[in-house]
Please model this.
Amino acid sequence: MSETKTAKTALVTGANKGIGYEIAAGLGALGYRVGVGARDEARRESAVEKLRAGGADAFGVPLDVTGDRSVTAAAELIERQAGRLDVLVNNAGISGDMGPGWIQDPTTLDLDLVRTVLETNVIGVIRVTNAMLPLLRRSHSPRIVNISSAVASLTRQADPDIDIGPVMAAYSPSKTFLNAVTVQYARQLADTNILINAACPGLVATDFTGFHGPRTPEQGAATAIRLATLPDDGPIGSFFEDDGVVPW
Model:
């Protein structure tokens, strides 16, 4: 399928609500055909209908990032729908259960909780990215954006003068791991036209944060949209927020 004959296609995981939805909406407003990746059928289709009502060319992609069959089926669906993929935004993520004060205490941490968080936030990203790479390689300007968090920054976490929020001994390291994986992809893909970067949306008021946070989902989506639409000479293997580069 020729890129000159069809609009660019994007897949956003976890796109049925919150930041993921706004990333999908932003890319749709820029003329991308957007695949709404989500597990829940009713929420997925509701998001697709809402995006279409707003003028976006959207379609649903049943997708559980923790399941090999689901991810394989999603790649096959996108191939049938578009023949290639121009943008992949790995947005789906979980915090894992929190204790009082929204804390995950490392001294009492349930190891099964760690495994569950890593399965979605890290292994799921690898699973989806590798399944989509053959489709991304067909694009003239493929982009991959991994949604990370400022709490992944070891520099900020280790600085006592920076308020990085509560201790989250499963979630925060999972995003640090994701950042490290992003760098490894960047190294491996350095000689290709694929640009991969990590984005921090900031503290956004969504159900993920219990609707606590000074930023709207639209604001949280902005950096990811910018990285998804980078020019061909754009950065690779970096970590960004609205104000620029986030320290590792």
Observations:
- The longest strand covers residues 33-38.
- The longest helix spans residues 111-136.
